[in-house]
Amino acid sequence: MTRPADRHRRTLKAAAASVAALLALGACSSSGDDASAGSGGSASPNVSGTVTVFAAASLKESFTKLGAAFEKAHPGTEVSFNFGGSDTLAAGITGGAPADVFAAASARTMKTVTDQGEAAGTPVVFTRNRLEIATLPGNPEKIASLKDLTRSGLKVVLCDKTVPCGAAAGKALDAGGVKLTPVSYEEDVKGALNKVVLKEADAAVVYRTDVRAAGDKVEGVDFPEAAEAVNDYPIALLKNARNATAAKAFIDLVRSAEGRKVLTEAGFLTP
Amino acid sequence: MSDDHPMTDTAPAAPDPAPAPAPGNAGTNAPAAARPGAPADAGLDARLIVDRGSFRLDIELTAAPGDVVALLGPNGAGKTTALRALAGLVPLTGGRLRLDGTDLDRLPPEARPVGVVFQDYLLFPHLTALDNVAFGPRCRGAGKAEARAEAAAWLDRMGLADHAGAKPRHLSGGQAQRVALARALATHPRLLLLDEPLAALDARTRLEVRARLRRHLAAFEAVAVLVTHDPLDAMVLADRLVVVEHGRIVQEGTPADIARHPRTDYIAQLVGLNLYRGRADGHTVRLDSGPEITTSEELTGPVFVAFPPGAVTLHRDRPTGSSARNLWRCAIEGLEIHGDQIRADLTGELPLAADLTTAAAAELDLHPGAPVWATVKATQTHAYPA
Amino acid sequence: MTSLDKTGAADTLAGRPRRARARAGVPLPLLLPALLGLAFLVLPLVALLIRAPWRSLPEQLTSTEVWQALQLSLVCATSATALSLVVGVPLAWLLARADFPGRGLVRALVTLPLVLPPVVGGVALLLALGRNGVVGRWLDSWFGITLPFTTAGVILAETFVAMPFLVISVEGTLRAADRRYEEAAQTLGASRFTAFRRVTLPLIAPGIAAGAVLAWARALGEFGATITFAGNFPGRTQTMPLAVYLALQNDPAAAIALSLVLLAVSVAVLAGLRDRWVTAS
Question: What ipTM does the predicted assembly reach?
Answer without folding.
Answer: 0.76
